[in-house]
Amino acid sequence: MLNLQRTDLFREAAYVGGEWSAGSGDSWQTIHNPADGERLGRVPCLTRAQVADAIRAADKAFAEYRQWTGKAKAAVLQRWAALMQEHKADLARIMTAEQGKPYAEAMGEIDYASSFLEWFGEEAKRIYGETIPAPRGTQRITVIRQPVGVCAAITPWNFPSGMVTRKVAPALAAGCTVLLKPAPQTPFSALALCVLAEEAGLPKGALSILTGNAEDIGAELIESETVRKLSFTGSTAVGKKLMAACAGTMKKLSLELGGNAPFIVFDDANLDAAVQGALASKFRNGGQTCVCANRFFVQAGIYDSFVERLTKAVISMRVGRGTDHGVTLGPLIDDAAFRKVERLVDDARAKGAQVRAGGQPHSAGPRFYTPTVLTEVDYSMSIMHEEIFGPVAAITRFTDEAEAITLANTTRYGLAAYFYTSDLNRSIRVTEALDYGIVGLNEGAISTEVAPFGGIKESGFGKEGSRHGIDEYSERKYVCVGNVS
Ligand code: NAP
Predict the structure, then answer these.
(1) How far apart (Å, rounded) are the C-alpha atoms in residues 457 and 395?
(2) Which amino acid residue places its CA nearest to atom 35 of ligand 1?
(3) How far apart are the CA of 93 and the centre of ligand 1, in A?
(4) Which UniProt keywords apply (predicted)?
């Protein structure tokens, strides 16, 4: 069915302390292909006692793994990256089957995911400390960096491999061990990565993949005093709950939460670049990314041309199963996601938005929505306040720069923002005025392993990627040596 070269990459098991586990054997989660609802397989629901065993295994592994040299950690991470490249087609097939994204996008995500292993493999050798001039001649002050310890990671379904390595790679590079709970829709990508991690030489217990009920697994991880950090990527609502729960054991936290990205096009923008950027930012992964343009603000002088060109490009998108040749837009992840998109479009239309393209379900199947362009959108509509997480471009007209900035910042989120202009001074002013953790200036595709990805406000805190990513998994220990003679 999946047509894999290496059938052993597809595992219907959890991965606990370096062993493949069927849990208690009597409770399972079934995974379906979102394109047609076909059953793909199942994974076990671990009991809380089994999660506790996994935590003990991670702790035991940590005692030894924390002693590894940067060079040794680098070698494993880089071998793992190379194995991902070697088995890229199989990994992409598994991803398209469980997540629905077009195969070409899945191949791109495997590159993105393996880039974190490569990058943090390199960084493992550069976890530098500091020497600080002491205020007294008899003292010497240094700062050393050490791994945080056993870390928990919880990931969403929209990037089934990328979200895994973006957390696991810096944690392992820093010398931490990791317990990861993947999203229930997409566990097979994470499990396939473990097969390759084992082959690359990752020691037993350094990485576990815990499948099953989110609340049980989450509670066991969060209540544990052994687990010193939680890194969560998902919705703001769940992030807030987890943050409150982590107060009990004062865990270190990274929260990569929801977004509501503005995409501003000024009159002086390069129109071709703006339309290309809009397509990349809005429609990648069917509009199901946290950094997706959610609200388009287009200046009056360029509004009609931008709408016309974007609509033309959107109408020509090819909707279908991710495995079909030439498809650029797959299904939404599940029925709930589909209903949300439908509700937001219907609400906008009822309140006066104009439908320029789409605005209805697509004939490819029950979870497919036709790529949509809405204009004359305003803040009375839910679509301006909620993450759409679907292939819908909602466009609002503005007249001047101050208005654009006010419109863009009117949200409780602060993850990514985009704007297009060819005016140098405006570039600087607007970059500085946008209340976001990431700004794409004349650029719609901003994700890369070399830059610090992360939000502000209710989009969370902490950085993933770049040299800053490793800070989240290491502590600075200040050492004061006295009585030096
Ligand atoms: P979600 O509902 O918050 O779920 C995310 C993960 O958390 C899933 O694995 C989920 O498992 C788990 N979870 C839910 N409740 C939990 C609990 N009480 N304890 C422990 N784990 C729990 O989000 P989603 O719908 O999967 O993902 C979409 C969201 O992720 C969007 O808001 C998107 O913007 C955000 N996102 C952010 C970034 C970023 O970098 N900022 C990147 C990608 C996605 P169950 O499904 O089993 O409950």
Answers:
(1) 24
(2) 234
(3) 23
(4) Oxidoreductase
217 Cα: distance to centroid of ligand 1 (angstroms): 14
Does this model's pTM top 0.85? My answer is: yes
At residue 106, the pLDDT reads 98
Residues 435, 457 contacting (CB under 8 angstroms): yes
Atom 20 (ligand 1) nearest CA = 218
| Distance in Å from the first CA to the final CA of the chain | 73
* Ligand 1 in reach of 183 Cβ (< 6 A): yes
pLDDT 10s digits, 44-96: 999 999 999 999 999 999 999 999 999 999 999 999 999 999 999 999 999 99
Distance CA 114, CA 85 (A): 7
Q: Is 246 in the pocket of ligand 1 (CB under 6 A)?
A: no
Among the listed residues 105, 109, 118, 256, the single catalytic one is: 256
Q: Is residue 143 within 8 Å of residue 132, measured between CB atoms? A: yes
Nearest to 307 by CA among 281, 271, 283, 282: 271
CB 337 within 8 A of CB 366: no
Choose which residue among 161, 233, 447 to substitute to test ligand 1 binding: the one with the highest number of ligand atoms within 8 A of its C-beta.
233
Q: Could you report the per-residue pLDDT of 171-182, keeping only the tens digit for each? A: 999 999 999 999
**Ligand 1 pocket: which of 158, 210, 388, 472 to mutate (most atoms within 8 A of CB):** 158
Q: At what angle do helices 187-200 and 88-99 cross, to 10 degrees?
A: 160
Q: Which residue has the tokens 């990459």?
A: 9
Q: Which tens digit of pLDDT belongs to each residue from 236-262?
A: 999 999 999 999 999 999 999 999 999
Active site residue 198: no
Beta bridge partners of 361: 369
Ligand 1 within 6 A of 154 CB?
yes
Q: What is the pLDDT averaged over residues 141-156?
A: 98
Amino acid at residue number 183: A
Backbone angles phi and psi of 67, in degrees to 5: -85, -10
Residue nearest to atom 8 of ligand 1 (CA): 183
Give me ligand 1 centre to Cα 228, in Å: 20
What is the C-alpha to C-alpha distance for residues 220 and 215, in angstroms, rounded to an integer? 9
Please give the single-letter amino acid code of residue 243. Answer: M
| CB of 98 shorter than 6 A to ligand 1 | no
Closest residue to atom 9 of ligand 1, CA basis: 183
pLDDT computed for residue 1 by the predictor: 77
* Whole-number Å distance between alpha carbons of 386 and 378: 13
Kindly give the residue spans of alpha helices, DSSP state H, lying in 300-420.
Answer: 300-315, 335-350, 401-409
Mean pLDDT for the chain overall = 98
Q: Can you say whether residue 290 is alpha, beta or left, with left for phi > 0 and alpha for psi between -120 and 50 degrees? A: alpha
